[in-house]
Amino acid sequence: MAFFEKLGKKIGDAAEAAGDKAKDFAEITKLNNSISAEKKEIDRLIVELGKWAFEAEKSNPESPVAIQCSKILESKKNIESFQEKIEEIKSGPDLEAPVPEVENLEIVTCKNCGAIVPEGSKFCPECGTPVDL
């Protein structure tokens, strides 16, 4: 019986130690989540501070952040230019613009299948029939 008592005590001790480790792990996980949340808040506040500093200093050439402000302003100008180009593309071609004329355009078609044959081809790309030049 002493054997079973010792075995039971060892199992109990091991279960208690495992329970303590599980509690420690849960507490560490909770603390790591809290650290992560605080880091996210710091990042948010830094972005907010940066926006405030930019707005306050963007017109001050003597500012210690003047170089960064000028780079931001240049990037904003680039964005506006890109957006204008997008609008030009979306609005499509000018329907009033004259269509350029093509001189001496000769279209060769295959006498067998009627497919258009590219200039300089000796055979039809569709059916392989030799092209008469």
From TrEMBL:
Q: List, alphabetically, the InterPro entries matched.
A: Zinc_ribbon_dom (IPR026870)
Pfam families for this protein:
Zn_Ribbon_1
What is the protein name for this chain? Answer: Rubrerythrin
Top-level taxon in the UniProt lineage = Bacteria
Q: Which residues form the Zinc-ribbon domain?
A: 110-131
Identify the taxonomic lineage of the organism of origin: Bacteria, Bacillati, Bacillota, Clostridia, Eubacteriales
